[in-house]
Write a structure and sequence with these properties.
Elements lengths: L4 H16 L3 H16 L4 H8 L3 H13 L3 E6 L10 E6 L1 H6 L7 H13 L1 H24 L5 H14 L4 E6 L7 H11 L1 E6 L5 H6 L2 H14 L4 E4 L8 E6 L43
Antiparallel strand pairs: 1-2, 3-4, 4-6, 5-6
Helix pairs in contact: 2-4, 3-4, 6-7, 7-8, 7-11
């Protein structure tokens, strides 16, 4: 039987609709990718609970994103016990970071390179300092409104970073040693710390080429929080996330805005677990992947 012209037109329209209509799986994987960006490092079970997917469906989407090179598996032990087999947790890969919006123009890198060639590396540092001075000015009232508690200030800073597209989050890590309420209360300021994480960096490419951006941002964090901080990893240096270590219970003389930070951490003599803290102005690009 010969197809009628009307049937031909309908068949053509159906084929066109299949081409134009977004793939439902692609839309779903974009949701998964966004959830990994927001929550990572995150487990498949946590993602499934958040998005309402069955374990089988969750694995299918994660496998597809892994095959496309958009996410990576990071194995991590429980922060509470440190025992057992490391859990599989997902983070965005470098390619995934690029897909989520690192699409600023290459001309910025070329312009800064030319600036450095013409005026020296100090000119790039001055440029980065000026850029982050605006961030510090905007964030200060937000952080100050959180009060004197350092954990609350870190959470306020993370929220401000999220508003600016850095996908900030905080996690309190470390365990008090010893037994009894008095021991726990006494050990808490020494043993615990906050990790401030940034799951996305809108200027990742620039920061990879010019470490001054990460260094100036670290200095801003130190001044806003009122303690010396240490960068454990950065996206610019190849890490899965930018992670800043914030010690609880250790205060130092934080430099004034724009001043070089040459102070060291205040470590009590009975603090065997205390580790040296890298000054905010030192390059953190020697840090490897977490």
């Amino acid at each position: 039987m010969t197809a009628t012209p009307r049937a031909d037109v309908q068949a053509s329209a159906d084929r066109t609709a299949q081409i134009v209509s977004p793939d439902p799986d692609e839309r779903t994987r974009d949701r998964v990718l966004s959830a990994v960006l927001e929550r990572g490092p995150v487990s498949a079970a946590e993602l499934g609970d958040r998005l309402g997917f069955t374990p089988a469906a969750m694995r299918r989407h994660l496998d597809a994103l892994s095959q496309d090179g958009l996410i990576e598996v990071k194995r991590a032990r429980s922060s509470a016990t440190g025992a057992g087999r490391p859990a599989r947790r997902y983070v965005l890969s470098q390619r995934g970071q690029a897909k989520m919006g690192n699409d600023y123009l290459d001309i910025a890198t070329a312009a800064l390179a030319q600036l450095g060639a013409a005026a020296g590396p100090e000119a790039i540092e001055d440029f980065a300092r000026t850029r982050f001075s605006g961030m510090e000015e905007r964030y200060r009232p937000i952080v100050e409104a959180a009060g004197p508690d350092l954990e609350a200030r870190a959470r306020a800073l993370a929220a401000a970073l999220t508003t600016d597209g850095f996908v900030g989050s905080t996690k309190t890590v470390g365990l008090p040693q010893g037994r009894g309420a008095r021991t726990v209360q006494a050990a808490r300021p020494v043993m615990l710390s906050v990790q401030l994480c940034q799951g996305h960096c809108p200027i990742q490419g620039l920061a990879s080429a010019f470490p001054a951006f990460c260094e100036q941002e670290t200095g801003v964090f130190a001044r806003l929080l009122g303690v010396d901080v240490r960068r454990l990893s950065t996206l610019a240096a190849g890490g899965h996330v930018c992670t800043t270590h914030i010690p609880l219970g250790r205060t130092t003389a934080v430099p004034a805005p724009g001043a070089p930070d040459i102070s060291g951490p205040a470590v009590t003599p009975d603090d065997p677990a205390a580790a040296p803290v890298t000054p905010a102005t030192l390059s953190i690009h020697q840090q490897g992947r977490p």
